[in-house]
Amino acid sequence: MAPITVVEGRRLALSNLEKVLYPATGFTKGEVLHYYATVAEVLLPHLRDRTVSFLRYPDGPDGQVFFAKNVPPGTPEWVTTAEVPRVEGPSRMVLVQDLPSLMWAANLVTEFHTHQWLVGTPDEADRIVFDLDPGAPASIVQCCEVALWLRERLADDGIEAYAKTSGSKGLHLLAAVRGASSEQVSEYAKELAVEAEKAMPRLALHRMTRSLRPGKVFVDWSQNAARKTTATPYTLRARPEPTVSAPVTWEEIEECGAPDRLDFDARDLAPRVRDYGDLLAPLLDPDRAGALP
């Protein structure tokens, strides 16, 4: 029988705590749950009021990995859900609003992916995101070069950018925006991706064409579409090791000379949060959101 834990008055059955989810390091499900409890203070504000897509990997990254967008069977009645618009018709999705909901979701063994809009205002985007994806032999080092260019370009339009690792090979650039639809944000993001390719033709690419990508950084602007979700800050990833989508400083990006300089896993995050707090906290301040030109 799964042990029962009480989290802020909610009873949770946490299962298979000794199960190894990351064979490369021996990282267990119990350690996954401990990680999320440790970073909850900085993670929850980035989940709150955003419907969540779960990328589940209950048997580890070498097992079945699948997206679950609708409310999972057996979801406790106290977990907040909301109806969201979709092309094929409305559906009901989960919102992770508090620590009990976070620990329940973490027990499913999942990556957390969220939209670039809040559930109360699905017609208005409050984020712009660029997913910088390197094609070998390019790496996150080249992603940093592109990120620095995009940072300056966004600043020219009065938009302040922040960065996090993807937790995989690349880098995510995010900024808070206001007064625009997801379609408008997507159009603006595409314009900047095209500009980046023109400014750095040997380095940046705005097209997804596989044959063009070796040695370049794909500036994926399409993540801004209303239907799409992006890995949430601080989420663990379904990778061979328990890597994390970790916020990073611009100084770290400027000084990144090797991929391992920006390679963070669950064991690195508690010290980073202690030293830096939430580097992405400004994204949560509506007064710092920029307007599209």
Automatic annotation (TrEMBL):
**GO MF, any single term:** DNA ligase (ATP) activity
Instruction: Give the residue spans that cross the bilayer.
Output: none
Give start and end of each DNA ligase D polymerase domain: 28-279
Q: What InterPro entries does this protein map onto?
A: LigD_pol_dom, MtLigD_Pol-like, NHEJ_LigD
Q: What does the UniProt keyword field contain?
A: Ligase
Reported EC number(s) for this entry are 6.5.1.1
Q: What class of enzyme is it?
A: ligase
* Protein name listed in UniProt: Non-homologous end-joining DNA ligase
Gene name for this UniProt entry: ligD
